[in-house]
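Thread: Newbie trying to understand structure tokens

Hi all, I'm a second-year student working on a class project, and my supervisor (Dr. K.) asked me to get a predicted structure for one chain before our next meeting. I've only ever worked with sequences, so writing a 3D structure as a token string is new to me. If someone could post the tokens and maybe explain what I'm looking at, I'd be very grateful. Here's the chain:
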Amino acid sequence: MGDEPFTERTPRIVNAAKLHRASVRRKTGRFLAEGSNSVISALRHGRVVEVFLTEDALDSFGRDLDSLTDTDNRDGGDRRGVIVHLITDRAAHALSESVTSTGLFALCSTQLVTLDEVVTSGGRVLAVGVETAEPGNAGALVRVADATGTGGVIFAGETVDPQGGKAVRSSAGSLFHLPVARHTSIPEVVDQLREQGYAILATSGDGDVTLDDAAVAADGETPLLAQKVAWLFGNEAHGLGDWQDLADVRVSIPMQGRAESFNLVTAAAVCLYETARVARV
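---
Reply by user tm_fold:
Sure, no problem. This is what the structure looks like when written as tokens:
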């Protein structure tokens, strides 16, 4: 780090702040991660170009960053090719998309992979967010997939960018733990999954089977959830709509109370957890 912290007018800060726009992220192949979980995960997985942090963030997170950059963050570090820059609070405000900033940011090279890389990754279970519109839900879906041991996540159709600020924060570092792809054609996503032997399951209020039934072997056959499966999870406001017709099996989650349905992330958590549980039995 230099003698003076970077300000909101420093060219590096100005250019990094432009990454709030999806078009700039696509053009540059870079994005911003904010907060200790995301930044430390990015550093551990070698995705960081440089780190920006305030004095307060240095006091809070400096020890955690020491082993991942240089032995002395106050002098900057490049042991892993990562330079650490001290920034002002106003610079942090320019970089942050949250109301209350942690003051810790990483400029990262893109984490997204191709559709082919996800569908051929060998994961037994994959999650597909169909037309996901809310950044927080996109990040939370990645986090749920990571927590349940899901092999990868695909965002299909016209979806939010999973490398946007809120999505990255909501993933709590999980974006860096498993392959994530984005592809605009939902039929192409389903076709490639089917070619790789995945059974396509869709959440539906009036499913062909219940989640309970899908977990049980019928007539000596392997339970549906123990097979190689890809789950389709619909848009927050409209569900899957007609896209559920692309599925091999529509699966409903039995409701115990008076609510009509779960929200997107809760439904994904229930389905992915139950799929992982069946495989362990």
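A couple of things are worth pointing out once you decode it. Residues 115-280 form a domain with the Alpha/beta knot fold (CATH 3.40.1280.10). The CA atoms of residues 13 and 207 lie 50 Å apart. Feel free to ask follow-ups in this thread.
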